[in-house]
Design brief:
13 helices, Transcription Regulator spoIIAA, single chain, alpha/beta
């Protein structure tokens, strides 16, 4: 058995976990076949030994204790710490500054490990940090669906109180074409199991994943699954891919056709219209999304959220172009930012200089996004 290699943290976490301590339980993704995801491609999946995760927890606890006892964090010279110890120290210092309220278990699917191992890790976290209010993780629907109700209840009792599941879509047609490794039925089963165990549930919906051809099916089928689950959170993400990616690699009949902003807005509008009988909070909480002001709780905020989308789709082509370019260039975050005449004029001038018109805005923005992605940049 390989000896402990030191404190580890993985590459990503949800935006809502920005203040969380990141603890790595697994490395990379156990499935790693989704055609739209490049995060873990060419990376081998492995589970970290429970003892190693516990050693990470203890390292964070040691540094937190030192800082709370009055040792000035600035007198810890980097040369006195190994690289992994320094990583643990920085993580502890940052987490202490954020108030130590939440912990996120990495990488792509912590619930794939044996339930008794996850329970042991969770209990050690609660023993070391009893004040922690929230412990969360990514999980695949297939992994959650395989866990017995009893084991899932034990995991919840040990401290896991929120999971983030990438539903992406509940269209079985699209799920098969993107090699998601789940079906609509599995998504629904996993969501209901998590809710029954008392675990807070965030379901992620990937806008644009069906392209133009399957946009309507994506919206209707996904809304139906969400109605059955009633997750605590529905979070929208916007699909952005390099043109070289074969998204529908599993289909001989279809090729992916990227969706324009207006089509994506209509897709979200239809999905929200179809949501009924739920109490979920809907969030568009990522800078990649065009309409970040979509943020409200059903059923009370449904009409307000629909009005935001109807306002965008009902704009004149010129105004809609100004917002699209302003949002993608960082001049606007919300539709209300268009009321700032100074920013409006800057975006208008940008459009003039770049030759962007209502007729070509989608193609121009697509080209811009493709170029930024080629350079490893984004907005």
């Amino acid at each position: 058995m390989q000896s402990y290699q030191g404190f580890e943290q993985g590459p990503i976490r949800p935006p809502s976990e920005a203040d969380s301590l990141l603890l790595r339980v697994t490395r990379n993704c156990p499935w790693n076949r989704c055609t739209f995801c490049s995060v873990y491609k060419k990376q081998k999946f492995s589970t970290r030994p429970v003892a190693d995760v516990i050693a990470d927890i203890d390292s964070i606890h040691r540094f937190i204790t030192q800082m709370q006892e009055g040792h000035d964090s600035r007198i810890e010279p980097a040369e006195n710490l190994s690289p992994s110890e320094w990583s643990a120290f920085v993580a502890a210092r940052n987490w202490l500054a954020e108030g130590m309220h939440s912990i996120f278990l990495q990488d792509a699917d912590s619930l794939v490990i044996r339930p008794e191992n996850l329970t042991a890790i969770l209990r050690h976290i609660k023993m070391r940090f009893p004040q922690v209010e929230r412990i969360t993780s990514y999980a695949r629907s297939e992994s959650v669906a395989r866990i017995s109700d009893g084991n899932l209840a034990e995991i919840a009792a040990a401290g896991l109180n929120r999971i983030h599941i990438g539903m992406e879509t509940a269209s079985d047609t699209i799920l098969q074409m993107i090699s998601k490794g789940a079906s609509k039925g599995i998504h629904v089963s996993a969501g209901l199991k998590a809710k029954a165990a008392g675990i807070e549930l965030s379901e992620y919906v990937l806008i644009g994943i069906g392209g133009r051809e399957f946009s309507r099916e994506h919206a209707i089928e996904t809304a139906d699954a969400l109605n059955r689950i009633n997750p605590d959170f529905i979070r929208f993400r916007t699909l952005h891919l390099m043109d070289s990616v074969n998204l529908f690699a599993g289909s001989e009949d279809y090729s992916y056709q990227w969706t324009q902003d207006t089509v994506q807005a209509e897709e979200i509008l239809l999905l929200l219209e179809k949501l009924e009988g739920i109490t979920s909070t809907v969030k568009s909480d990522h800078s990649y999304n065009l309409l970040q002001e979509i943020d409200g709780t059903f059923p009370n905020d449904k009409l307000r959220l629909l009005a935001i989308l109807q306002h965008f789709t009902g704009m004149s082509p010129r105004d809609r172009t100004i917002f699209q370019v302003g949002k993608r260039s960082g001049h606007f975050i919300r539709l209300s930012d268009m009321e700032n005449s100074g920013r409006w004029k800057q975006v208008e001038e940008m459009c003039r200089q770049s030759g962007i018109t209502p007729e070509n805005v989608d193609e121009k923005l697509h080209e811009m996004i493709q170029e930024r992605m080629r350079r490893g940049m984004f907005f």
